[in-house]
Design a protein that fits this description.
The complex is a heterodimer of chains A (112) and B (112). Chain A starts with a strand and ends with a strand. In chain A, a hairpin with a 5-residue loop joins strand 4 and strand 5. In chain A, 0% of the residues lie in helices and 50% in strands. With 112 residues, chain A is mostly beta strands. By secondary structure, chain B is mainly β. Helices cover 0% and strands 56% of the residues of chain B. Chain B contains no helices and eleven strands. Chain B is globular. Classes of the chains: A mainly beta (112), B mainly beta (112). At the A-B interface, strand 5 of A face strand 5 and strand 10 of B.
């Protein structure tokens, strides 16, 4: 039981490049989330998916898109990366009827 | 929307002393309040949570209190140990949304 996994662990992009961050969970959870973590700003919700087939914007969705590929997988895409998107990105999941969110190990992204 | 404020941003205590971290929230509909611990370079992990129908919850050296009227909740760590050194985040959530709004974090240092 791996829990929540994320790839890649580290990534460096140039301004304007695109990339997709991958997230998968093996806990049969309905809900999945993408956060970004910046120093002094805590964890901010980018997008979430309450259940397979649905996605919704969080606090800071601009510049990102998501895809809930199936129940297990939830990806985050940066179409045209900007230096302001330099951050640590965490994926999380939670099961029905239980608010606890389980986090992945994070992806450290640097945009130059 | 919901807003969560967390204080202090940094806290240093001597080993064996107690530590208290406080959070306030704005949305009276919030009814679930988790606390996460994040060690350096690691993922956030749930350490304790409280629901709005409960005023206090304890788990060994950790306790959380909730004052719904004042819209604030606190984390109490007694007999602190060096391994308690980490960043602690509070969050607030509302049933049916499963979205968290996080505080900005408290860096706790336990001095040996």
């Amino acid at each position: 039981n791996a829990g929540v996994t994320q790839t890649p662990k580290f990534q460096v992009l140039k301004t304007g490049q695109s990339m997709t961050l991958q997230c998968a969970q093996d806990m049969n959870h309905n809900s999945m989330y993408w956060y970004r973590q910046d120093p002094g700003m805590g964890l901010r919700l980018i997008y979430y998916s309450a259940s397979e087939g649905t996605t919704d914007k969080g606090e800071v969705p601009n510049g990102y898109n998501v895809s809930r590929l199936n129940k297990r997988e939830f990806s985050l895409r940066l179409e045209s990366a900007a230096p302001s998107q330099t951050s640590v990105y965490f994926c999380a999941s939670s099961g029905a009827g239980n608010h606890e969110q389980y986090f992945g190990p994070g992806t450290r992204l640097t945009v130059t | 929307g919901e807003n969560v404020e967390q204080h202090p941003s940094t806290l240093s205590v001597q080993e064996g002393d107690s530590a208290v971290i406080k959070c306030t929230y704005s949305d009276s509909a919030s009814n679930y309040f988790p606390w996460y611990k994040q060690e350096l370079g690691k993922r956030p992990q749930l350490i304790i949570d409280i629901r709005s129908n409960v005023g206090e919850k304890k788990d060994q050296r950790i306790a959380v209190t909730l004052n719904k009227t004042a819209k604030h909740f606190s984390l109490h760590i007694t007999e602190t140990q060096p391994e308690d050194s980490a960043v602690y985040f509070c969050a607030a959530s509302t049933s049916g949304t499963y979205k968290y709004i996080f505080g900005t974090g408290t860096r706790l240092k336990v001095l040996a």
